[in-house]
TrEMBL record:
Obligatory cofactor(s): [4Fe-4S] cluster
Protein name (Swiss-Prot/TrEMBL): Dual-specificity RNA methyltransferase RlmN
A Pfam family recorded for this sequence: Radical_SAM
GO biological-process terms attached to the record: rRNA base methylation; tRNA methylation
Note: Reaction proceeds by a ping-pong mechanism involving intermediate methylation of a conserved cysteine residue.
EC code(s) of this entry: 2.1.1.192
Record's subcellular location: Cytoplasm
GO cellular component: cytoplasm
Classification via Gene3D superfamilies: 1.10.150.530, Aldolase class I
Source organism (scientific name): Chitinimonas taiwanensis DSM 18899
Similarity comment text for this entry: Belongs to the radical SAM superfamily. RlmN family.
Domain Radical SAM core: 97-333
Amino acid sequence: MSINLLDFDAERFATFLAERGEKPFRAKQLMRWIHHFGAADFGVMTDIAKATREKLAAEAVIAPPSLMLEQKSDDGTRKWLLDVGTGNGVEAVFIPEDDRGTLCVSSQVGCALECTFCSTGRQGFNRNLSTAEIIGQLWWANKALGRDPKGDRIVSNVVMMGMGEPLANFDNVVAAMRLMLDDNAYGLSRRRVTLSTSGLVPQMDRLREACPVALAVSLHAPNDALRDEIVPINKKYPLKELMAACQRYLEKAPRDFITFEYVMLDGVNDSFEHAKQLVALVKDVPCKFNLIPFNPFPNSGYGRSKPDAIRRFRDHLIQAGFIVTVRKTRGDDIDAACGQLAGQVKDKTKRTLRLAAEGKTTQTIQITRD
Ligand code: SAH
Ligand code: SF4
């Protein structure tokens, strides 16, 4: 199998070129062609000698995942379904806002962590994405969206909040994020790259050392009993450990707060008492809250909290001194909202079979070309 140069961050480029007796500056040239200009063909790299290009082409390719489908929502949200082989697809979503353009990137085909309210989790797990498949999502989005009249890229921010648990695919996610930050690739500031995790404590510590970026933590419950139920990884890393890991992360984080995500599930985690418990839970962690009204999917068994409940919950947090945003639901007409990303996952964990037996399967989301 050929080497795929989209798998390489700067360090791997350096080793690869040194082993072939090439000068270090070639790394910069190649990275710029591939990531600044979206080149997938050595032929266009006219500032590199033809003989060198031929040598490279003999053993390496630049192979982004191929595009299966592109969709546009009425609100400007765009979604790309990318072919990651053997009948599997993953999704990347672009969300335009007044002051920024955010790409939501997937890290795995499915997810093994089984949060009960998440469509990706319900689909089971197939495999980790490669670095090329992760950075390939940004490569494609930049190709499709280009630059604004000032010459700045339309994609200004990345959130690792698509399908999968990014910290469960640590090495490939870190290499892809290093490319996002590299000036010869995407040049994003660490503050504009956010990784969202359900709370893998040891990997949060590793991330702080390897590639500190802004961190969002999917909390969703203010006590262990409820979190054990809806975010089962909590049984392994309970709230006390998670809060301590958040504090440690902040010692090196590019932002001085953690964003706690909290999905609002009707009658499950949205009472006034839950809000009070939450305030007590996070008292030692500088943080902001992002309340996410639950996005329904077929047979989820959950409903979205009532607007009044969301307001009461938010107001309590604000009165306690926190900055709180309630996430606007974007792109739900193309199933691109949080937790609706289903892609095409061939489950290897038998989770879908188990749920089918319990009558709790999700229907495969039909994506049609029109
Ligand atoms: N695995 C990571 C990142 C992907 S999920 C994590 O769990 O943090 C991105 C966010 O969407 C998480 O906060 C997740 O809990 C939330 N989410 C999942 N399903 C959802 C749904 N149906 N409605 C609203 N938010 C959901
Ligand atoms: Fe996985 Fe995140 Fe979904 Fe939980 S919420 S199942 S960790 S993708």
